[in-house]
Input
Amino acid sequence: MSGPAGVREVRPDALSGWDDRTVRVAGGDVQQSLAWGAHRARTGWRVHHLALDDGSAVLALGRPWPLLGGGRLYVPKGPVAAGATASLVADRLAVVASWARVAGYDTILSDAEIPAVTGYPAALAARGFRQAEEVGPSRHRVATPIHAGADDAALLGAIATTTRQLILAAERRGMRIVRHDAAAATTPGPGFEAPQPERLEEAETAAFGRFHGLLAATGERRGFAIGPRSAALAWWRAALGAGHLALLEARSADGEYLGAAIFYRNGERLTYAHSGDVVALRRAQPGASRLILWRALQLAAREGRSELDLGGVDVAGARSEPRPGDAMYGLLEFKRSFGGRWVELTGAHEQVLHPARARAGTILTRVGHGARRLAGGRGPRP
Output
């Protein structure tokens, strides 16, 4: 469609090289990928691939209001910085907001993973955006820096003593890490095993099924719900096929399944996204989660990435760094044991483009969500 100067919507047949501009760049993110857009289209979102005059690209997802027309536009983890200044990234979002207004959207929400120290929050405020509640679980990340050329000895030496001892003990017991990763194919690299090549697709499907079951058990134990199995497996397979995802499974010396974790390639970061372990085997097979993270750190370094992104541990309702005595403090210390450092991010910001319809649409959406919850359903994410 036509729109304001500086932005145009790209046709589906003209998306060659999209991920090179949105994922495989500094600050890139898989939620700006072609695969993520296709996944969200399957779940009812309107998908817009926007090209800006400065050569950058932005994936935006539209959700109509019930009954009213109009709707919300969400820019997941974007615009990506790709080395640009905070001011330039804010300009890109302002141009997308102008496009959204012309396209008939009433609000625009963005949660690019840009550190707050860059000045991005002030740049957004100057362009009419205000802080909003997060779509994801965190407003920060815990990041382990990886210095260029760091070898295994240097990486291991930066890990806390107790964690390092648990890793080495797990290796001595013969604990293994199976790597499901299109980038590895059948040559997974030192410290990893790969599925049998003649049964690769079958092995990946089974591995994702095991992992979803593990997450479901973790959610039941901790009191949170996860998405439907079919949608999760469809996304994981798509991300794997695009080279964005690695699934690492921990197994005992005799092949017993101990746990697993999914990691995403987000530009210069390898991001720790989801994990779980078999609780009943923790005492007999300690160190599985730590060995998985150690292998991920090795993988990130070998791929030339500058950071292992360990995700967030926000204090509920505060979005602040946990302190001793907080429920999440133990998880923070676990991530710090891998050399993790707290990185405060800008967080989600929104701009209201058509106030009256935005207010009415928000009310109708909340009513619809409430009705679905009473009926046992799940409402869409914003």
